[in-house]
Amino acid sequence: MDIRYNPDADSGLPHIYRHNVDETEVEDVLRRPQENMPGSRNSRIVIGQTRAGRVLKVIIVPDDNGDGVFVVTAFDLTGKPLRAFRRRMRGRGEQ
Fold it and tell me: In this structure, are residues 45 and 56 in contact, taking their beta carbons and an 8 Å threshold?
């Protein structure tokens, strides 16, 4: 799968760096998503765990040709959204 990253306007580096997330962590979540739901404007919201155990929310837009994705942003899932995610996973027998 081809993965492209939204560049930060100031640095030109992937925007995910501003959230202390690296490409390997995004790839972990995209390889083993625990939730994948529609977002706005053709985006997808993917939630999953990295190999280190971080729970990330990754916003992607599928490429038109279907072979890859464009990562808009990724960040730690925290607070109430994290608790709700964990409840949903327990209901599915995961975690």
Answer: no
CATH number, domain of 19, equals 3.30.2310
Q: Judge whether residue 25 has pLDDT over 70.
A: yes
Domain that holds residue 9: 2-91
Say if residues 60 and 1 touch (Cβ distance below 8 Å): no
Question: What is this structure's pTM?
Answer: 0.91
Number of Cβ atoms within 10 Å of the Cβ of 34: 16
Question: 63 exposed, middle or buried (CB, 10 Å; 0-12, 13-18, 19+)?
Answer: middle
When pLDDT is averaged across residues 39-63 and rounded to a whole number, the result is: 96
